[in-house]
Amino acid sequence: xxxxxxxxxxxxxxxxxxxxxxxxxxxxxxxxxxxxxxxxxxxxxxxxxxxxxxxxxxxxxxxxxxxxxxxxxxxxxxxxxxxxxxxxxxxxxxxxxxxxxxxxxxxxxxxxxxxxxxxxxxxxxxxxxxxxxxxxxxxxxxxxxxxxxxxxxxxxxxxxxxxxxxxxxxxxxxxxxxxxxxxxxxxxxxxxxxxxxxxxxxxxxxxxxxxxxxxxxxxxxxxxxxxxxxxxxxxxxxxxxxxxxxxxxxxxxxxxxxxxxxxxxxxxxxxxxxxxxxxxxxxxxxxxxxxxx
Length: 293
Description:
- The chain has two domains: about 5-85, Arc Repressor Mutant, subunit A (Orthogonal Bundle), CATH 1.10.10; about 90-293, D-Maltodextrin-Binding Protein, domain 2, CATH 3.40.190.
- The protein is built from ten helices and twelve strands.
- Strands 3, 4, 5, 6, 7, 10, 11 and 12 form an eight-stranded mixed β-sheet that branches. It has a two-stranded antiparallel sheet with strand order 1-2.
- Strand 1 and strand 2 form a beta hairpin.
- With about 290 residues, the protein is an alpha/beta fold.
- It holds the Pfam family HTH_1.
């Protein structure tokens, strides 16, 4: 039995002409796409790809199956849109994924108002980073995301995803009160050349934004603490073990021994709601409306 994920992988290779481009469009790794295609070949009983220069191309069997996959995925999208249009009643599941700071700061009040207004709505929430959440949205496992995009490293979002900005905020350098620069209001990132950093894990938007910000000022970052939660990063900062980049909404609560300085050049972070355009439903619309009030 062919699975939708494997058919999506084949359709993406057919549309983009390479496994690497298909992987980028699906927010997957090339090896992950290759694994899906290998399983699909075994299920199909025919080779679906063949070498073509440094890349690959579809075989005759691959083109036939990709054509069927395109029609099947189009029919599935149409079915989802038809069901979403059955009515405007806000009920049933609403599966939300979001970065931790946005989940903690924006969602509780919004969900409380939403559930009070629509008692038959059943929201669920998972936290995580955009790199992990976007594939779940694209695969239909989540309905709505709260994702971050840093001004110096805008988040690439695939076609077919609608975004709505919710918050635009300043980003601060968090220093221990014992740091020589702690009494300042602003700090040039070039002044932090010998600093040890705490940041979210590699591959996440905060990590890449930190690396690019420092390298732009001629500093090679020394990131020794890879922890996802801002409160944990601030605990390390308070003990003088590290420095961290902290968005405005994550400054509170913070240990009293932490000082926050604006950066030069200034850094900003946006929080955005994101959902599949074709799968916009009454629950998604209602939640976005509450979040943007």
